[in-house]
Amino acid sequence: MPADAAPAGPPHDDPPLTVGVVGAGRLGGALLEACADARVPVSLRARARTGWTVASVPDVLVDAGAPEGFPEVAAYCLRYEVPLVECVSPLRPLHAGLLDEVAAAVPVLEAVNLSFGSYLQRRLAALVAGVHHSTAPHVDVLDRHPVRKTARVSATAERLATAWTDAGGRPEATLGLRRGGPEVSEHAITWTWGTDEALTVHHQVTSLRAVARTALALARRLPGSPPGLIAVDDFFQDLSTSPGDDHPMREALR
Fold it and tell me: What is the largest CA-CA distance in the chain?
């Protein structure tokens, strides 16, 4: 974090939202494209190799970097009171206390998965858990990513399996790992009853463009919010239960 970064000057009437993007990976690149398409100024860029470049303190920071970089992100948000969209999936086991410290000072959106389809998949898993069947199913969760993804079960797959058990589903799901195939990822949960019947709920993401648009739409809603930790599913729940086309995020998800 640059020691001499200073807060932005006095705001003008209806100033445009400015965004900071941490991370040089695929999501970071997709976020920059989404900002360019929406004509949202990016006033901060942070990359592990080149460091922090700050034109002015942004209205909101989106962290799509690596877990080891979070202490620097946290220090920046605390120093300048910048709201945070936190997108690093394995962050909580490593930095739960620090994440809570930031959330006590500024609004923090914990967005482990920014896919609306993934949210709906978890809702469906919970729905199946609440339906009685005379035969206990065998439950499988598939986690498929390209070969460059680390050989561990993704946070998305773990959350899908947990959605089933947290809603009372039994037995626990068997997690299956596959590396290969096209971009970006796919996840499926399958219930098999005996040898005659099975149900699969499958979700695939082929591009990060929609995910980045969602992150930007969520980032717009954070400035001015009170401090606290917000789960991305709370936004999706609001979206999925709001009738009509007037929800502020609906256009971003199209």
Answer: 68
- How many Å apart are CA 116 and CA 232, to the nearest integer? 10
* 51 SS3 class: strand
User: Which residue stretches of 130-231 are H helix?
Assistant: 155-166, 209-220
Two structure tokens written together for 217: 């739409």
AA letter at 98: L
Q: Give the model's pLDDT for residue 15.
A: 66
Q: For 43-81, write each residue's pLDDT tens digit.
A: 999 998 889 999 999 999 999 999 999 999 999 999 999
Nearest CA-CA partner of 118 in 186, 166, 210, 180: 186
CA distances, 188 to each of 179, 196, 198 (Å): 14, 19, 13
Taking CA 151 as the corner, what is the angle to CA 34 and CA 234, rounded to the nearest 5 degrees? 45
Question: How far are the Cα atoms of 27, 79, 127 from residue 75, in angstroms, in the given order?
Answer: 22, 6, 40
Q: Is 144 left (phi over 0), alpha (psi -120 to 50) or beta?
A: beta
